[in-house]
What we know:
Elements: H1 2-10, H2 15-27, H3 34-51, E1 54-59, E2 71-74, H4 81-88, E3 94-98, H5 107-114, E4 117-119, H6 124-139, E5 144-146, H7 168-173, E6 177-183, H8 186-189, E7 197-203, H9 209-212, H10 217-235
Parallel strand pairs: 1-7, 2-5, 2-6, 3-4, 3-5
Antiparallel strand pairs: 6-7
Helix pairs in contact: 1-3, 2-3, 2-5, 3-4
Amino acid sequence: MVRILLMVLRNLFRIPSAWFKLCHYAKHTEKYPELEKWQHIQYILRMGVTSGNIDLVVTGTENIPKENGFLLYANHQGLFDVLAIATTCDMPLAAVLKKELANIPFLKQIIACTKSFPMDRENIKQSMEVIVNVIKEVKKGRNYLIFPEGTRSKMGNKMGEFHAGSFKCAGKTKAPVVPVALIDCFQVLDQKGIKPVKVQIHYLTPILYEEYKDLTTVELAKLVRDRIEAAIEANISV
């Protein structure tokens, strides 16, 4: 976590005011527009990226829907994944996160501001409740990031299996599904050191409901995984 310390030290004089404002948004989240809260979150995250020796290479931002109510499905490499996507997706976004992150300062406030949902993957009932809540929120026009592997792969740029249950949200909401390919995210916060790191984020062509309506969740999971895998293989040496 030496890189996090570097990010903090380089922004020491900016942090207090940014933190106070974030906490205010979190306590009074219903009073402020989604975009206003999101832009402040991005401001904080971009400070960290800029000062953390991180080079973000982003493609396909034109594939991010301009209308709210979509789902991003990304491969999961490490702690930096959510930050990489949040920094580069200008549409307000929430996420499904593991429960252990729910009470960590900063993440706790972001969860409150974005209406993200911590999930206990060992608790089937609670997991189903999260899926039901995500479906409700997407239907209301909120956008969600989901990691269908369930946990980081710990194999670098190699993915684990995608859980079909994660794709129930798509079928129930008829929302556009945007596959997101992450490359080398694991090097940022999951490895020691502060040497410069290049991270790639590729937003792939959305899969519209008309394209996946006749697929089972297992088939949709395979389709999304195959497209992300192809993007990783095509860009891994870039």
